[in-house]
Design a protein that fits this description.
The complex is a heterodimer.
Chain A lengths: L2 H13 L10 H45 L3 H10 L2
Chain B lengths: L14 E2 L6 E2 L5 H10 L3 H19 L6 H17 L10 H23 L19 H13 L3 H12 L4 H8 L3 H21 L8
Antiparallel strand pairs in B: 1-2
Helix pairs in contact in B: 1-2, 2-3, 2-4, 3-4, 6-8, 7-8
Classes of the chains: A mainly alpha, B mainly alpha.
């Protein structure tokens, strides 16, 4: 005899008639999703700004090196500077 | 309505109107149409999905908590998680089934997190066994909720799905992600523990 289970079943049948509290989640869900998107955008913006700053520094440095390397007389002047007292 | 997608088995088809010759379109599965709109970036489509299913999900999660604020938070969590996984949704089964699986996981997680913080008084076994038919539905729900709270989380989950949600073994297996054999074993053990709990509290079986 599964009397205790019959009791639980009867109680559950009664419980299922209970009205569930009204929930209006749509506005809150959309607000939370929007704030998540904003946060992600903010992280991406910071990463973009940081990489842009880094790229600017690297290109400025490489430009100076490139200028020195691409000057054909630079080596000659350097050699003469060491040879001529 | 003259333009929308006819969503049937994942295919779109148009139907011509006899009167105007314009394509008349019927949307058989509003969820599918809204999911596609949502993936295209239409934000309001997801709000429509939430409004359509929030009642069903709240009803399910009301078995996991008796606190309205927590219920609201849990319903939101379900829809946030569903949104994040929207691209992985395969429309072989209705969208609501997928949401129900997420809701079950959310409720299960909630119980596990709460288990550590729960005071001993929350686990107090029932001291009386009122006649179910004499109880108000909310009293019956509260009573059964308290009885199930005395059991470990896994047992509680199986019994909640079996008795409150009237799920079959297959449905429980699908919702939790356990095998059918495991669900049967857990259900057997949970019923045994429930019986012991009720007997310890003074419940006696009535043999005819």
């Amino acid at each position: 005899m599964k009397d205790h289970l019959t009791y639980v079943t009867r109680m559950a049948e009664r419980a299922r008639l209970e009205p569930v509290p009204d929930v209006h989640a749509a506005t809150a869900v959309m607000a939370r999703l929007r704030s998540e998107v904003r946060q992600n955008d903010l992280v991406l913006a910071w990463m973009a700004a940081a990489s842009a700053a880094l790229a600017a520094g690297v290109s400025a440095y490489s430009l100076t090196i490139l200028r020195a390397l691409s000057d054909p007389l630079a080596t000659l002047f350097q050699m003469s500077a060491t040879l001529i007292p | 309505m003259t333009s929308a997608a006819l969503a049937l088995d994942g295919r779109a088809a148009g139907v011509s109107s006899h009167a105007t010759g314009e394509p008349v379109v019927l949307t058989l599965d509003p969820d599918r149409a809204d999911i596609e709109a949502c993936l295209r970036g239409e934000g309001s489509a997801y709000a429509r999905i939430v409004r359509r299913h929030e009642g069903d999900i709240a009803r399910q999660l009301w078995r996991f908590t008796r606190d309205r604020d927590e219920l609201e938070d849990m319903v939101q969590d379900v829809f946030i998680e569903a949104y994040r996984g929207l691209r992985s949704f395969r429309s072989r089964a209705p969208f609501l089934h997928w949401l129900r699986r997420i809701a079950t996981r959310t409720g299960y997680r909630y119980w596990r997190q709460r288990e550590r913080d729960r005071a001993a008084r929350d686990r107090a076994a029932p001291d009386s066994f009122p006649t179910p038919e004499d109880q108000e539905p909310s009293e019956a729900a509260e009573y059964l909720f308290r009885v199930f709270q005395c059991l470990p989380v896994d047992d509680r989950l199986v019994l909640t799905l079996l008795y409150f949600e009237r799920c079959s073994t297959e449905e429980i297996a699908a919702r939790i992600g356990w095998s059918r054999a495991l669900v049967k074993v857990r259900a057997f053990r949970a019923r045994k523990k429930l019986r012991r709990l009720m007997e310890q509290a003074g419940y006696r079986e009535v043999t005819p």
